[in-house]
């Protein structure tokens, strides 16, 4: 039986400003159940992909980015079988990091410093060389810009039901009117509810879900053709057009720039 990733490392046993830990999900259960830390947590994907759920939002951890979850926020995750992750745990008030969950761009220098910290025990000397690395790391991390790789899903049961259904079958091309009938609402009422709860129209919300799913599946090794078909696109070109419009480059260009995998 594979162990849960939550059981192998407890970051709250130390009050050091920052500690890091690496996980290979070929050795752990893909599902990480809902849990909470005193420390804030930054999740980086070295290989493969992981999606997190926190604050009624679904977050994807794409290449060269990390999902930041403040301390005290319950969260869960699901990793692909080939995922290799690095976690950075940050003591409250140790750095000026966002007070809400978000995706942060991660520079090559920060990634290497986190990797360096992950090679150390969680009881390194508070005034030694490793502690100085941790302080510089946190100063740099606080300067990183935010990215928009999340899908707001709301705690509203009707929106949650639609999100669960589309996450399970993202190729579903049902219209807003179709979904309104399924959740026993008028189309106009559902449209207003979506904007109020997520800040997005139905079309923009579903496109954001497709982008989140596409980034996860491409990072896990799926071919562009398979991802496009799995999302219900009539052609690969239509999918690539959506991807490029959202992220400014084609899937091949996006991942090549990040040296994560070749498509």
Automatic annotation (TrEMBL):
SMART domains: HTH_ARAC (SM00342). Keywords: DNA-binding, Repressor, Transcription, Transcription regulation. It comes from the Bacteria. InterPro entries: AraC-bd, Homeodomain-like_sf, HTH_AraC, RmlC-like_jellyroll, RmlC_Cupin_sf. One of its GO terms (molecular function) is sequence-specific DNA binding. Residues 160-257 form the HTH araC/xylS-type domain. PROSITE patterns: HTH_ARAC_FAMILY_2. This is AraC-like DNA-binding protein. It comes from Rhizomicrobium palustre.
């Amino acid at each position: 039986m594979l162990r849960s990733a939550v059981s192998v490392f407890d970051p709250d046993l130390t009050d050091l400003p920052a500690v890091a830990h690496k996980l290979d999900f070929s050795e752990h259960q893909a599902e990480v159940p809902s849990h909470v830390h005193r420390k804030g947590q930054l999740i980086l994907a070295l290989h493969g992909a992981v999606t997190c759920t926190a604050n009624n939002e679904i977050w994807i951890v794409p290449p060269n980015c990390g999902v930041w979850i403040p301390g005290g926020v319950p969260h869960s995750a699901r990793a692909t079988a080939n995922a290799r992750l690095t976690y950075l745990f940050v003591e409250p008030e140790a750095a000026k990091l966002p007070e809400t969950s978000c995706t942060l761009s991660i520079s090559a220098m920060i990634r290497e410093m986190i990797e360096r910290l992950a090679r150390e025990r969680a009881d390194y000397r508070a005034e030694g060389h490793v502690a100085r690395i941790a302080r510089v790391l946190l100063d740099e991390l606080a300067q990183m810009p935010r990215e928009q790789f999340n899908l707001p899903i709301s705690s509203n049961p009707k929106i949650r039901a639609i999100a669960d259904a589309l996450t399970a079958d993202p190729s579903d091309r049902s219209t807003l009117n179709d979904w309104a009938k399924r959740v026993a609402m008028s189309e106009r009422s559902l449209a207003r509810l979506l904007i109020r709860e997520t800040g997005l129209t139905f079309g923009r919300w579903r496109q954001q879900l497709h982008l989140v799913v596409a980034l996860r599946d491409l990072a896990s090794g799926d071919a562009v053709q398979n991802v496009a078909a799995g999302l219900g696109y009539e052609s690969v070109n239509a999918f690539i057009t959506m991807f490029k419009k959202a992220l400014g480059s084609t899937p091949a260009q996006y991942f090549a720039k990040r040296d994560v995998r070749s498509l």
